[in-house]
Amino acid sequence: MNKTLLPLTTQLNKVILGKEQQIKLSIACLLANGHLLIEDLPGMGKTTLSHGLASTFGLTYSRIQFTSDLLPADMLGVSVFNAKVQEFEFKKGPIFNQLILADEINRASPKTQSALLESMEENQVSVDGTTYPLPNPFFVIATQNPSFQSGTYPLPESQLDRFLMKISLGYPNVEAEKNMLMQIEDNPASIETLLTEHTLREMQQEVSRVFVSEKVINFILQLVTTSRTVNYVTSPLSPRASKAILKASKAWAYMHNRDYVVPEDVQAVFSSVTEHRLNGGESSSHGSSPVSQKIIESVDPLSV
Q1: pLDDT tens track of the chain, all 304 residues?
Q2: What is the helix (H) or strand (E) element at residue 103, kind and residue range?
Q3: Fewer Cβ in 10 A, N or C end of the chain?
Q4: How crowded is residue 29: how many other Cβ atoms within 10 Å of its Cβ?
Q5: Domains observed in the chain
């Protein structure tokens, strides 16, 4: 594990108990300069993880509760007339923070959901014909309730594709939940800031420079091509997905103290990067293997 990141994961593991893999994937998503989608039942620790990441990395943080009556202006901001200067002034909304928690994003209407697209893709927002840059770094963590719960609007494929990764925390094991119940205090705000935003930007630049051999590129291409030829995939992987796999693999290699990517890095991140793209966001049916896992198992990296 990268010596700079080890204290971060150790601290977060004390807040989100028994979820070391999900924490590492979340950090990898941030280092790859992507956005993260978390799907789970309420009360699994999604908000705690988001707040913990913001505090640990020293990022400004804002939580936006998505509801059926939330308007784009509530999130982006609005122009207000200033009578003193006889001009309209733009009042920035909560989107103008470095880490945004879009909580229960699929409870909002499609119009409000789509208002996030420009900010996630271009790191800017446009209001009344004027474009405003967003902070750098800019990281969106969106949570969504399972589609079977009432009052939800499915995220369109175009918006799902903007999320570099999708993870699920799931129920903790018995030992982790026991330790959680025995904790005297559960206060994510007390988490120490271990990095600065400047250091984070430097690490993101270092991740982008991680070397990827032609053999690893061919392995990624074989995985993507397989998704386009088998009959059990609803939505084959696009070129944007290929780039996402590459970015996430670089971040995973960097986290494990390497300046080059190996096939095992691709395998480690593949499911979290592709599962929500392969089946349009629908979870695999009970008892079946995830589609992404079937693809991984069908391609031997040594044969590429």
Answers
A1: 888 899 999 999 988 888 999 999 999 999 999 999 998 888 888 989 999 999 999 999 999 999 989 999 999 999 898 888 888 899 999 999 999 999 999 888 888 888 888 899 889 998 888 899 999 999 999 998 776 666 677 788 888 889 999 999 989 889 888 888 887 555 555 688 999 999 999 999 999 999 999 999 999 999 999 999 998 898 899 999 999 999 999 999 999 999 999 999 999 999 999 999 997 555 544 345 689 999 999 999 888 7
A2: strand 99-103
A3: N
A4: 28
A5: 1-197 (3.40.50.300), 209-304 (1.10.8.80)
